[in-house]
Write a structure and sequence with these properties.
about 55% helix; globular; 2 domains; 5-stranded parallel β-sheet; 9 helices; Rossmann fold; about 210 residues; single chain; alpha/beta; 5 strands
Amino acid sequence: MSKPITKTNNWVLGLTGGIGCGKTAVSNMLEELDVTVVDADIIARQVVAPNSDGLNAIIEYFGQNILLPDGTLNRAELRSKIFTNNENKEWLNALLHPLIRLKILTDLNNATSAYVVLVAPLLFENNLDKYCNRTLLIDVPIATQIERTAKRDNTSIEQVKSIIAAQMPRNEKQQKADDILNNDRNLSLVHTELVVLHKNYLQYALQNTTNAP
């Protein structure tokens, strides 16, 4: 039996930020610079895809009514099952968190670019930064988060505020992050600063390779 993966040999940049901060726009820029991006949100969906071990376990626990007619997970129904039931929530977290972490570490290890980016909205909250060599916070004022998210997701301002309140406070993220990229400005300016950071990360990754035993 093979040992579980607990770390990655690649140099990893953890990219995070609150809802509506523009993580996707920045990660897309990094992909255009030939950097592999591993997205925790995408992986969270993959581990509950049809016929996956994750979804099969959820079906066994909650029953067939947890599925949509096309056989995919009914996320709204699942949310209702765990929203007011801590036992269900703890069971689901115990199932999914190990699956998500294993897939994240596998994908980080399989990356062949000079360094690899782990995009995770809850990077600090879920302690995923322990797998990263450096962290980059995509930062915007809370008012910008509210405006962008309400417009993008067609949700109420009150709902957006409750989502932000459930995440780590902005000032705490700023204190934890190694680098901060202001995304409350023209994207061309963001791109220019990101390219400078990218060159730094290439150097860090090269040094890491050079110093490896």
